[in-house]
Design goal:
heterodimer; A: alpha/beta; Rossmann fold; 2 domains; 4-stranded antiparallel β-sheet; 9 helices; 10 strands; B: mainly alpha; 63% helix; 2% strand; elongated
Amino acid sequence: MIQAIDLSKRYEDGLLALDHLNLNINPGQIYCLLGANGAGKTTTINLFFNFIEPTGGTALLNGVDCTKRPLDAKRHAAYVSENVMLYGNFTARQNLDFFTKLAGRKDLKKEEYYMVMRQVGLPERAFEQRVKTFSKGMRQKLGIAIAMLKQAPALLLDEPTSGLDPKAAAEFVELLLTLKREGKAILMSTHDIFRAKEIADVVGIMKEGVLIMEKSRRELEAEDLEKLYLKYMEVS
Amino acid sequence: MIREILGKELLVNLLSLRFMIGLVVAMLLMGLVGYVLMADYSARYQTYLGDLQRHQNELSQTRVFSKVQVILDIPPSPLSVFSRGMRDLPSSITISPYHIPTLVDDAGSSETIHLSGTDKNPVNPLLKVFGSLDVCFVISVVLSLFALLLVFDSLSGEREAGTLKLVFSAPAGRVNLLLGKFLGAVITMAIPLTIGFLEVLILFASSQQVSLRGPDWAGLGLIYSFSLLYLAGFLALGLLVSLFTRESSSGLMASLLAWAVVVIVLPSGLGSLARYYYPERREEAMLEELDRRFSDEFNRIPYRQVSSWNMAQTDPHRGESLLGITREEAFNRSEYVKKAFPLKFRYAEDRYRIAQAYADRLATWRRTRDNLIRPSLSFLYGKICSAVSGTDLETYDAALTRARLYRDALQSYLLPKVARPEWFTRIFEYPDMEPTQANEQAWRALEEKEGSDVYLKKIWTWSRVAPLDLAGMPLMQDNRPGLWARTEGSFWDVVILLGMTGCFLVLALRRILHYPVD
């Protein structure tokens, strides 16, 4: 569902942000990308949404080339950023309405929006409240609601739990597991090693644009992911 | 997809503080300027009606053909509330066989535009680049700034806020996004524009003296459409600026700079540059030569003065509209008049050719200057609005052409009458002026009784003379250029305005395809 084949990105200033990345995420699978700042995690997600163009290789979403047919590819994936930013003067429902329509779903009723907002754990009073009053946790939940309403088979999240309090982070992870059970393929970049070990089916560690380790849940069961991560980070 | 983005943009704009402030400022200014210009237009219209009546009365009271002159009163355009255009243009043109009107008749006359910059005639309208303070000026300066401030951070702001990534993650397409933003902004700007126009329309509706006719409504529609097109140009420019700036603050600075260049620097800078090449008036020597030549010709016409009463001191060309002369004198003068007046007509034509040559040079200079300033959207917009409103120099020039055509017809009508005594006197309508022995005796008796000036007292009174019958005089055709003819003259300005707006939009569309989101 989410596939990278020799995906590379070299910026105009010469920095090689991503070097021949290969990964494959199947439906119902959560893939956690770990790595220090500047390791290439965000670049990877940016390439799938064609925010930037690759200098080599291919990014595929449900088999559709993200560079050649970006609009088609985007239909198969939803995006949640580290800090979900929405239109502050709009209410939660108005934001949902706009982004859902933008995703091509135009026939939704108010009640359906309310239902999804309940699902992601937003309090009822927030439904018609302006988003500029929302906490980060509430905005992240609304971001997930937008992604859910898009009904895309793939979900790409760029450090979505960063800065969330433990309760909010736990609720967020619970939502991801629900989506996984629904058969979504999920790629999540994160710094949170414990959370990654908790929910990931596959964990990848990136360093300086290279995927230096990839292990499945089973392979990680006997290992301490934190030590493993630090070990890879220390290796020059 | 564009519809969703458009709807969102509209809502975002309407909920923004800057829109509310801009709306209030636009409403206040357009209402205030509309109110002041409405009062000004009403006053000018009343003056026009008064002048029209007075000039018609004066014409109907003409006693000799040599004094026939028609004054073409130019009605003020109700659309001048929107675009005052060249406000220093004369409101009437005098048409007579002795003078052919041009744009550059002698400075100082009330019936010509003033070409000098002296204290007496402080403004030369030809040199003016900025329009008068009118509704279109408010749109040109204030609403254009409002338009730029509405969109200067349209893309860079969303990028800074972080919403752009989420928008671009949707399968909406970047072109759709930009078009949606553009159309949303155009509709947003249409709101203060429409309210401003409605304010002026309410003023029209509440006026007892002013009413709009069919073509005025059409002109109003055109001005509204061109205003929206003009604002769309600034919106496209603002989007382009937003796409080339990373931060909103730099976008704001760049937008203000772009506005200042388009609205102030280009027109005033290039206008000032063009002033250096303003054509000098060089026909003084030619006019002097013409005067000398005609003076010689006048002097060669035989004229034998038989009366002791010499009218020459008050009448430079001798023979015009004399009443207080004897029959013998009148007969003598009629021989002179037959030769002198056709010469005067010819003199007017030669003088016209010299003046028109200068007017043509001025027109060429003005065209060049205008072409130089055309890259300024505000200059183009001002020109289009004054053309549609009928307040531009071209409309006045058309009135001059109309006056000259009528002058030809008037001359054809008057020329055969030069040989008639009514050309310059009505003395023959006094039977007691016949040089008979009985009349002479009667006069002598009166002189003895009432004094030597009895002759003058009796004859020198025009009020006793019936006005001329001017029924056969040609009528002035009302062939003023209509709305479409005036607008047609601005065709290329509209094309350039449209082209520049399209150009900004295409550049913005090209840019957004490669606009970095990270």
